[in-house]
Amino acid sequence: MESESPLVPFPLLRTPIESNYRACTIPYRFPSDNPSEPTPVEIQWIDLFLKSVPSFRQRAENDSTVVDAPEKAEKFAQRYTAILEDIKKDPESHGGPPDGILLCRLREQVLRELGFRDIFKKVKDEENAKAIALFEGVVQLNDAIEDDGERVENLIKGILAGNIFDLGSAQLAEVFARVGMSFMTTCQNLVSRPWVIDDLDTFKTKWIKKSWKKAVIFVDNSGADVILGILPFARELLRHGTKVVLAANDLPSINDVTYTELVEIVKKLKDENQQIVGVDTSGLLIINSGNDLPVIDLTNVSPELAYLAGDADLVMLEGMGRAIETNLYAQLKCDSLKIGMVKHPEVAQFLGGRLYDCVFKYSEVLNY
Fold first, then answer.
1. Which CATH architecture has domain 121-363?
2. Domain named Damage-control phosphatase ARMT1-like metal-binding: which ranges (predicted)?
């Protein structure tokens, strides 16, 4: 169900005055730039969104829930392309100046106006079914690692490997359509450490020494990402006695998992004793984040999430959209993790890393 309550600020976000919070990580423009002319960075990112239009059109064409889907898919491609070309000419048009949040929102608005609610539903369902079949084996491999530090490192690498299932990237969408993706192979072929941002060793030390009471995890994609990456990590937290809140999107966007989908996934993974492969799930909650995009502005979350998150002492943002393109530099009042794979050359360039490099940013807050 869609949230009908007004959105509120995430309670563990330091106030904008304290932290100079701005959701988008990459500055598209500066105050000194001419407001009537696009900046080179704006043009670079508009072109990136333009490259994704054909893959979105193809998904929309095949949406059997929409009458006259091919014709409406073509209208989507024409309208959204025209909007992006308008912004290239006049950055202030269509609610600009543009940033990652605005460009994503305009794309979703055009799709929804034409009746497309979830053009990635079929591929999400297929990938969820595949990942559920692999889940127990992945968990058993993790459980077999006796050393706590090695086990958590393996879990983190699983999150990064799962995060490659991202159909918002035109390049990855093309690869996925041609050959698919193997979770285990991706785990083995992650780019070598040190990553472009790599606080993993510090986190491993804290993991062994520190027991968090409650963790809030903003999840990202369906399939291997949430099922083989995030859920084994959440299960490990539960096993350590940490309560876990999984925050998922209100509405569909690309192949991101939604709140209702995640509820069903977890239900399928539980046994008759409400355990997930031997671990009690009474401390696990799934909540609607209030978000409807692949990126997130932490000044706008659901009141339900705000209520449940107030006493958390660990917040994790996962995925390129939520943890890198937005919120990489967000300052929180408690310990935080920003984790994701770099899947756009433009992001790699900004960070000074490699394509498919990894970000693992851990920030500790003392005396929270």
1. 3-Layer(aba) Sandwich (3.40)
2. 51-359
